[in-house]
């Protein structure tokens, strides 16, 4: 019966209903909601899913509840309870409201979950007496069974979400300083279990990939946008700026509902990176229909383009991005408290600028300049770490990036045939002093190198897994592997792999060069006296590479007493815009030494990593993510600033204090002064120097270590 009902749903036309209230024809919110869900086909889809038993169908509503005492940034609880009444009128009485907060809870001393829900108006009973349950989607977590190719693999979800028979996603109509707008798809980040959404679903993982994989596994069945009273301006999702727009949008597809909402805001639907990724991956439903008036909202203000671009330049895995997302969130004094003084002051400055930026050009310019300066500083720090502080860069959790079912065994089996002519050309090139061969081929580079290591072949191939070769390469940031087939011994023979590396060469990061991000098909062979992996790039999610094909072979040397490693590749990476304008291909005398040096560095370190893996020495760069957030309030980015201010204040108070004479007055009427009673003339400065010593020492030590690593690599 379930299969029949779902087939019936698939045959329905996908309709996005846009129901609006006007000055000449005012319509109450309850009527807007009823008309929207009816015209979008909610009742037909519910009936098909219930299969004649509406009381037995578990329905979950997930309204955006990411406000701290500011209803303008949250879905109206009154509207949600109107929907509960409509459901109960049709016999659907197993209703749950799954609330999840997207705000920076772990940074604030705020109310608990129940208090926050009560503040927003969710009491478990509507004015008409209909009852519903309120659950925290961060509790009662069960394994969700996300596939190994998913960025959410190993993550759980709330039992109420997993066991629901019908899911309704309800978003607030608002702008967003980074995405441009945040509607149904952005609201889905709130249904995921971790309380610290920024850490787990924006910094550790890419938010767009998270939403795509969630839609593949547990997509909502219906979507609503509460645009009765919207929040617009520079950061409507953070700082409430109400605007009566008198609209409710309903659709079975979240991307379609968001497209209608974006058009009403007069913005490009693909301007949001979240929506752009979903539209690229899934597209819009076939034969959809837009039912309603799409005239843009009157008086609506979108975030300035300069602000959106500046915020996007703040890397989500950095503290500057996190600090902005916290400090720009308006918090009502009676709803929560920012415990860090420096963060509280920064929050007052940012929220004041955000509130005034829409009407005051000076405030808008100051806000964009502030965020732009922070973005430039953040980019500079990240570029420096790419070259000299790689141990401080965060690794990445990513999805596979492509559909593994889109490729057949034939696609894997033809890889060796495609690479063979290129490998013959590489082997015919003359080697240089480092036994490296390279040659330009069009706009790509053919490169080959080899090394014979003092390790018995049998022991080397046992310790160095040929199927993990890509992850042994230098500057590897992270990735994901999906095994397609194995041999009789359980070894992978065909697999798909996504790999991320630092910008190559590393100095390209100073020119805005992105990390290398490629998806590859890989074929592996295991001979008696050989191990070989060959790969072909089929996709680059960030457009950083056109070619990154090649092979690595482990072969015996000296009768198996040693091991020979042979690497052959063809690569073409996308240059930053500055270098594209420079056109290095027209300056071969400058280009060729740079190419030779960068390849010699990269593959020398890669061959070193193979030896390190054999010897059991650590060689991975970057810091891994922890399951628990490691950016708790005790490690706020503003904490050091707060401590510095306190230290300066203490030194100033000591310096301005009236000096006290040393020693003490004795009974004989004379001052008696011991050697230890005489204070230093530079006491405050000495204290300041001692407080500053660890930071200075750590800086110079890190600089010396970076220089030593650079010398060793040369």
**Multimeric state:** single chain
Please tell me the overall pLDDT: 85
Please give the number of β-strands.
Answer: 21
| Sheet of most strands | 9 strands, mixed
Quick structural gist:
The chain has 714 residues and is an alpha+beta fold.
List the helices and strands and how they pair.
Elements: H1 2-11, E1 15-20, H2 29-39, H3 42-50, E2 59-63, H4 77-89, E3 95-99, H5 113-120, E4 133-136, E5 141-143, E6 156-158, H6 159-162, E7 166-176, E8 180-182, H7 184-187, H8 197-203, H9 207-218, E9 222-231, E10 242-251, H10 254-264, H11 273-281, E11 289-292, H12 305-313, H13 319-327, H14 341-357, H15 361-388, H16 409-413, H17 415-428, E12 436-441, E13 444-453, H18 457-463, H19 469-472, E14 476-486, E15 492-501, E16 516-527, E17 530-539, E18 545-557, E19 562-573, H20 577-582, H21 588-615, H22 639-656, E20 664-665, E21 671-672, H23 683-713
Parallel strand pairs: 1-11, 2-3, 2-7, 3-4, 7-9
Antiparallel strand pairs: 1-10, 5-6, 7-8, 9-10, 12-13, 13-19, 14-15, 15-16, 16-17, 17-18, 18-19, 20-21
